[in-house]
Design goal:
Chains A, B: One of its GO terms (molecular function) is transcription cis-regulatory region binding. Chains A, B: Pfam families: TetR_C_16 (PF17920), TetR_N (PF00440). Chains A, B: It comes from Prauserella muralis. The structure is a homodimer. Chain A folds into two domains: about 60 residues, Homeodomain-like (Arc Repressor Mutant, subunit A, Orthogonal Bundle), CATH 1.10.10.60; about 120 residues, Tetracycline Repressor, domain 2 (Orthogonal Bundle), CATH 1.10.357. In chain A, about 70% of the residues lie in helices and about 0% in strands. Chain A contains nine helices and no strands. At the A-B interface, helix 1, helix 7, helix 8 and helix 9 of A face helix 1, helix 7, helix 8 and helix 9 of B.
Amino acid sequence: MTAANDSTPTRRRGRRPAGEDTRTALVEAARAVFAESGFDGATVRAIAARAGVDAAMVNHWFGGKEGLFTKAVLRVPFDIDEVLESVTAGGPENMGENMVRTFVSRWDGAGGEYFVALIRSVTSHDDALETLKKVLVSRILNAVAAHAGSDRPELRAALCATQMIGLGMTRYVARLEPVASADIETLVPTVAPTLQRYLTGDLGDLA
Amino acid sequence: MTAANDSTPTRRRGRRPAGEDTRTALVEAARAVFAESGFDGATVRAIAARAGVDAAMVNHWFGGKEGLFTKAVLRVPFDIDEVLESVTAGGPENMGENMVRTFVSRWDGAGGEYFVALIRSVTSHDDALETLKKVLVSRILNAVAAHAGSDRPELRAALCATQMIGLGMTRYVARLEPVASADIETLVPTVAPTLQRYLTGDLGDLA
């Protein structure tokens, strides 16, 4: 984790300058409101109210709703290198299990709202899709697939994307039971073998 | 296929009454425009222009944009019984492969726009999520899992949902290569074993 991580809990409030507090509160509130309402449905007033600050602070610190959206949703709220390390550290044969653990534990924290906000913004912002593709796939899954060392790494990364995007959609957006409420120890033995096969297994006879 | 299927090609135009032609053209145009722009971004004018009819026809036949959305996106454009038959007819051991073939062949046709329109409307319409959950999961995947005859059918249906929703998101919404352009004979050997395991395989040691 980097010190600048946006999802750091705000317990250290007393040691921060007030401006940073306000910005952190607005970013966290924005993620929640964008997740609930999407970009078009979210209002500056609702975000400021949830953060407990004056609506004028949104313009002051972010130049408006669009700027706040960029900061809260289009910038990734976790350290990509740390995610990569967490998925790959156990070697190729444990990547499936580590991928489920790493993503679901982050998404279940502050990241769940981030994931939902990103998906719900796909309509209004082509950038939201590009973020999903560039960060989840290009920077994380392609690197994991390269570490796995198997043939056709691009196809393997994209197949992992189908499972991880679908898991996120089902658990956080559609909230479909029993996947929505399943604890991580239920998800690991069910979903990890899929990812493990996509990364290092036999993909069948392709032309 | 039922005769009333909305995705029936419009070649039989000469044999239909003009009103039905107009409605079919508007529904098809609406699906395309909602897929591109989401509900909020789509205008009656744009839909009517794409259908080649006067914008007043939207109010005349559907009572406005909301009514047209209900007809074009919230009502499922395929015969659910026929989909179920196609997935289950080969018996439990072929359901994974048949699920990929059945869904991808329908989505690659007119259904791709339908899927994208549904996903892009999640922000504006809670109904869109309910449709995804009720039709894809409750009516199709739960029935398939019941046919498969294994333990924990609800969990198995939801796991199939993670893979199928993720495959649809990756291929049609994110358009991530090489999954976006892969032909069905590439997708079947890669993805079908996942679905087959979710339906009839070992899901690991659960508490």
